[in-house]
Amino acid sequence: MRFDIITVLPGLLESPFAHSILQRAQKKGLTEIVVHNLRDYASNKHKSVDDYPYGGGSGMVMSIEPFARCIEALKAERDYDEVIFMTPDGETLNQSIANHLSGKGNIIILCGHYKGIDQRVRDIYVTREISIGDYVLSGGELPAAILVDSIVRLIPGVLSDETSALSDSFQGELLDAPVYTRPADWRGHKVPDVLLSGHQAKIDEWRDSEALERTRQRRPDLLK
Predict the structure, then answer these.
(1) Is the whole model's pTM more than 0.85, yes or no?
(2) pLDDT score of 45
């Protein structure tokens, strides 16, 4: 699976993709993450990629031409399943979306900045718009890294224990049950007896019950 991320600040994406699971996934050849500097596709001598908005108002707007050049150059090399724009007014990222996108082949992700991007980029090239929450960040780089992480960990072979991803919060539309490790008794705070019983059916029943109760308390909206 390949991700092409278009940004004006490629340095912001160096660390997220150079460590842990995402690094191992790339080394295994299970995913390829390529970051493109949008300024490389600017036609003016100053390599500027933004301009004043028509109609006035504060802020600068990212121009269509650099995006068009970059996207079209990438599409000339391979087919893409999605061109995703990270934006606060997109559909909110959830586990179902991550599951769906993990079955794709090649994805382009656009990172906005300033006041936003020219609407024509969204109208002509973008196939899906995704938000990571109801708030505004300085740019789309961190949301892009979050989206890629949520997808890559689901690719078969990425996690050493593939069943781990299947039991994560939201996979069964519930939050995950509490988890514990050694010691069994820490300063009087004990691990529930059922987890030490070795009785797998009872352990599974306890986990299902705890997951349901945690969801009821913290995210009752998921139960609807």
Answers:
(1) yes
(2) 87
